[in-house]
Design a protein that fits this description.
The chain folds into 2 domains: about 260 residues, Glycosidases (TIM Barrel), CATH 3.20.20; about 90 residues, no CATH class. The chain is built from 11 helices and 17 strands. Helix content is about 30%, strand content about 20%. By secondary structure, the chain is an alpha/beta fold.
C-alpha cells in the first residue's frame, strides 16, 4: 500500500509539472472548480510567496518561481505590498508622498509586471493582493491614520482603477482583496477600491477576499458582484491564536464542508492555514529554515523553559544569495547547504544562570563549567 501511495504521488507531481494551462482560467459549468481555455480542470496548487515583489530582485524572483514550478506548484500567492513603509529591493516605494493612492510610483509596478510576465511564461498563475489590510494594524488598514482610511473612498477607487488598467493585459492573474482581516472600519474605502478594480480589470481576472480566520470570502461577500471565487482560512480548534476562541476555530475539513454546502456555489480554495514549523502547536516558523532545533533553559521567573539558542539547517537558502557552490565528482555544480547557529544568546542565557544559581543572600553561584573563565566561584554585590 505504501509503494502504491508513493507511485500515485509521483504521478500526481509529474502531472502538475507537465500540465501547461491555457490561460486565462474560467469557472467550470457546475461552478465548482477552475478550467483553462481548453476546458481542462486546473488544480489550484499554490505556494505563498507573499513578499516576492518586495523581498526579491527580478532575477531572484524568476529563480524562485522556476524552482517552485519544478516542484509541481502552478500558482503563487503574493502581496503587492505588505507594510506601509516597505520598499522593494530596488529602493522603490509603491506610492509617492505619504502613501498617496493617487500617486503610484510607476517604476514599482513595472517591477511587479516583469515578474508576472515571467510567471506567465512558466505557466504559473499569480494571485496578487491589494496593499495588505493586516491582521494586527501592521498593514495598510485598521486605523484612521492608516493609508486605506486616510486616502478615503475617492482615492481608493482611483487606485483600484489604476491597478486594473496597469495589469489588464495579463491572462495569468487573479486578485486578493483585504488581507488577514474583515473590512470593519475600512469598509467604505475598501468597497470603493473593489469597485474601481472590478470595473477596470478584465473579468477573467477573478477576485476573492482574504478575511480573518475562521471567515471565508462568502461569509462576508457571498452576493457581491465582484466575488469570483472564495478563500477559506482556518487552522484547527486547539491552536492558540489571537483571533477567536478555540471552539470557534474549525478544522480545515469542517471549513471546507461548510463552504461546499452553501447554496450559491463557486470555486473555493484553502487560501491560508498553518505554516510549516518546528512541530510546536503554537509556533509558525516564519523563516527560511528547512529544520530548526531550539535549545531551551529553565527560567524560574517565567515558570517555564525559554529558548536560549537554536540550530537551523538552511538548505540552499543562504548559499544561493552568497553564490557558494561546489563541484561534484561528475562535474555538476551545486549550491552548498548551510547551518545557522546562534551559539549562545547572551541576554537569555544570563537570565537563566542568574535565576537558577542565585543564593539566598543575593550572590550568584558560578556554574562549575564556567568558573575557570569567570575566575571565581561566587559573584557578590560590592559594598
Amino acid at each position: 500500500m505504501k509503494k502504491l501511495y508513493v507511485i500515485v504521488l509521483a504521478l500526481f507531481n509529474v502531472f502538475l509539472i507537465n500540465s501547461q494551462p491555457h490561460f486565462p482560467l474560467m469557472i467550470s459549468d457546475n461552478h465548482r472548480y477552475f478550467v483553462d481555455q481548453d476546458g481542462k480542470p486546473f488544480l489550484y496548487h499554490a505556494d505563498t510567496g507573499w513578499q516576492i515583489f518586495t523581498q526579491l530582485a527580478t532575477d531572484e524572483a524568476i529563480e524562485y518561481m522556476s524552482f517552485r514550478k519544478a516542484q509541481g506548484f502552478n500558482t503563487i500567492q503574493a502581496q503587492l505590498v505588505m507594510f506601509p513603509e516597505q520598499l522593494n529591493r530596488y529602493g522603490q516605494k509603491p506610492f509617492y508622498g505619504d502613501n498617496d493612492f493617487s500617486k503610484p510610483n510607476e517604476a514599482y509596478y513595472d517591477h511587479v509586471a516583469k515578474i508576472i510576465s515571467k510567471a506567465d511564461s512558466l505557466d504559473l498563475l499569480i494571485v496578487m493582493s491589494q496593499p495588505w489590510l493586516g491582521c494586527c494594524e501592521e498593514g495598510f488598514g485598521g486605523r484612521p491614520d492608516k493609508p486605506i482610511q486616510k486616502n478615503g473612498p475617492d482615492k481608493n477607487r482611483q487606485y483600484g482603477q489604476y491597478l486594473g488598467n496597469k495589469f489588464k493585459s495579463f491572462n495569468n492573474l487573479f486578485w486578493i482583496m483585504g488581507g488577514d482581516n474583515d473590512p470593519k472600519a475600512d469598509r467604505e474605502s475598501l468597497f470603493a477600491f473593489f469597485d474601481g478594480l472590478y470595473q477596470a480589470a478584465p473579468k477573467h481576472q477573478l477576485m476573492t477576499y482574504h478575511a480573518s480566520p475562521p471567515h471565508s470570502s462568502t461569509d462576508l461577500f457571498q452576493y457581491a458582484e465582484w466575488l469570483g471565487f472564495s478563500f477559506i482560512y482556518t487552522y484547527w480548534r486547539e491552536k492558540p491564536n489571537q483571533w477567536t476562541t478555540a471552539e470557534l476555530q474549525p478544522h480545515v475539513y469542517e471549513a471546507a464542508i461548510s463552504e461546499w454546502s452553501k447554496s450559491d456555489t463557486m470555486p473555493f480554495v484553502l487560501g491560508e492555514s498553518q505554516y510549516e514549523g518546528t512541530g510546536k502547536i503554537e509556533n509558525d516558523m516564519g523563516e527560511p529554515q528547512v529544520k530548526k532545533y531550539d535549545i531551551e533553559t529553565w527560567m524560574p521567573s517565567r515558570n517555564a523553559y525559554g529558548e536560549t539558542m537554536s540550530n537551523s539547517f538552511m538548505g540552499e537558502f543562504q548559499a544561493r544569495r552568497l553564490n557558494i557552490r561546489y563541484k561534484t565528482k561528475t562535474g555538476e555544480i551545486r549550491y552548498v547547504h548551510t547551518l545557522n547557529n546562534t551559539a549562545v544568546a547572551s541576554p537569555r542565557i544570563l537570565i537563566a544562570i542568574l535565576e537558577n544559581y542565585q543564593q539566598e543572600d543575593g550572590s550568584i553561584l558560578v556554574p562549575e563549567a564556567l568558573r575557570e573563565m569567570v575566575g571565581k566561584e561566587v559573584i557578590r554585590v560590592k559594598g
